[in-house]
Specification:
467 residues; alpha+beta; Uridine Diphospho-n-acetylenolpyruvylglucosamine Reductase, domain 2; Uridine Diphospho-n-acetylenolpyruvylglucosamine Reductase, domain 3; 4 domains; five-stranded antiparallel beta sheet; 18 strands; 34% helix; FAD-binding oxidoreductase; FAD-oxidored/transferase_4; oxidoreductase; FAD
């Protein structure tokens, strides 16, 4: 089929039913929906389809199988691995119009959502009902639930609440073969063989499309309090973490470099936390449920000061101040975006972080002496974000080529420490050449086998994770 025939068929398929979907073909829409936050691959989709129902998605998948048309899922397009990029004439299936909260059970603390529900939308719904959805990150205002689940998104609360996987009670999916499956039926206990729900979580849309998800909610945290500390040395991040975890239940533990904070402060929207300059900073969050908890926190702070790990610090005295302190961390990605950063999202188990971080830092300093390096990340769960900023006088193509030359050395260190080349943004296309640094040949063979079972014709998000 040629492009015109494909577009005509797509329009007919989503016109059926009481709630018709849309097909977009304008150049601006193709550009917008055909990419994510990566800037490496140029988008080139044939069309954008915005379905309204699971049945329309099923019809689209069956059509794609019959005519060997490749489909790419698209959520909030906030990914950083090109997992939602349509660069080879695919049809994009975008879930922006499947954005309804369908059902809610107060007693079960379960909420059933369509895949296009925005993370912040679910967070606000939970709050309105006296509950809490804890999976949170800087893109919460635009990322969609289906995309979060497909990449097993983590974010800033993993140290306490875990990843997206931990909050999924059930899924409705359309497989690559065109079958509709209701997975787990929202049960807390269901020991009846393989839990296919967990295959779709983190699969980056390569097995089929998530159209609905039932999410668990939790109690609201009590008096979240933020402490920002200026650290004397990179290795002190672990000293401080160990000390505070010995006395408090942390809900978050983040770190960022002075260079990272400098970019945030340059925008003028957030003030410096204190006058003392430090090479690195840690942001801790905890529930200050009593005066005793606050006293314990201050004693731990004084202990870190006495040991020379901390140079200065500030603790929030109100919810507004806590939110402002969080901006020091959450605005980093936004503030460095104009510099076309080359991002590495890597992880190891927490106990290996100091040595791992030191080796990576020394390698990058040696290989990139003229590049600005920005460190930040969810260090409390072993996840580090290494960002290399493009010099203003260097072409994007030359910059990415230089960065890729060092990737191999960085990932050899990741492999040495038995870490992951992608902690939370998935493999997509950008990490595909490096999958073997985290997965064995035998594992990859099993992954390919699973893909073949669910998507035998290879029409669902082809070229992502592996070829």
């Amino acid at each position: 089929m040629n492009s015109e025939q494909i577009i005509a068929s797509l329009k007919e398929l989503v016109a059926a039913g009481d709630v018709p979907g849309k097909v977009l073909t304008d150049a601006a829409d193709l550009e917008s929906y055909g990419k994510d936050w990566t800037r490496i691959y140029a988008p080139n989709p044939v069309a954008i389809v915005l379905p309204k129902t699971t049945e329309q998605v099923q019809a689209l998948v069956r059509f794609a199988n019959e005519n060997r048309v490749a489909l790419v899922p698209s959520g909030g397009r906030t990914g950083l691995s090109a997992g939602a990029v349509a660069a080879s004439g695919e049809v994009v299936i975008a879930f922006d119009n499947m954005n309804q909260i369908l059902d809610f059970s107060t007693s079960d603390r379960l909420v059933r959502c369509q895949a296009g529900v925005v993370t912040e939308q679910l967070q606000n719904f939970a709050e309105e009902n006296g509950l809490y959805y804890p999976v949170d990150f800087a893109s919460a205002g635009s990322s969609q639930l289906g995309g979060n689940i497909s990449t097993n998104a983590g974010g800033i609360k993993v140290i306490r609440y875990g990843m997206s996987r931990d909050w999924v009670a059930g899924l409705k999916v359309v497989t690559g073969k065109g079958d509709i499956l209701d997975l787990n039926k929202d049960l807390e206990k269901n020991n009846t063989g393989y839990d296919l729900r967990h295959l779709f979580i983190g699969a980056e849309g390569t097995l089929g499309f998530i159209t609905e998800a039932t999410m668990k909610l939790s109690r609201q945290p009590d008096n979240l309090t933020v402490l920002v500390l200026g650290l004397n040395d990179l290795g002190n991040t672990m000293d401080v973490l160990k000390t505070f975890q010995g006395g408090l239940d942390l809900t978050a533990y983040e770190f960022f470099s002075h260079q990272a904070m400098g970019h945030v402060l340059a925008h003028g929207q957030v003030p410096a936390p204190f006058e003392t300059e430090a090479p690195y900073y840690a942001l801790l969050e905890f529930e200050a449920t009593s005066d005793q908890v606050m006293e314990d926190a201050m004693n731990l702070f004084e202990q870190c000061m006495e040991n020379g790990w901390v140079l200065d610090g500030v603790i929030s005295q109100s919810e507004t101040q806590a939110q402002n302190l969080w901006q020091l961390r959450e605005r980093i990605s936004e503030s460095i975006a104009p510099r076309t950063p080359y991002k590495n999202d890597i992880s190891v188990v927490v106990s290996k972080v100091p040595g791992f971080l030191q080796e990576i830092d020394e390698l990058v300093a040696e290989q990139y002496p003229d590049f600005e390096i920005i460190w930040f990340g969810h260090i409390g769960d072993g996840n580090l974000h290494l960002n290399i900023l493009k010099p203003e006088d260097m072409a994007k193509e030359d910059f990415f080529e230089k960065c890729q030359q060092v990737n191999k050395w960085v990932f050899e260190i990741v492999e040495k420490y038995q870490g992951s080349v992608s902690a939370e943004h998935g493999v997509g296309m950008t990490k595909k050449p490096y999958l073997q640094y985290t997965r064995s040949e035998a594992e990859i063979a099993y992954l390919r086998g699973i893909k073949q079972v669910f998507d035998p014709n290879g029409i669902i998000n082809p070229g992502k994770i592996f070829d």
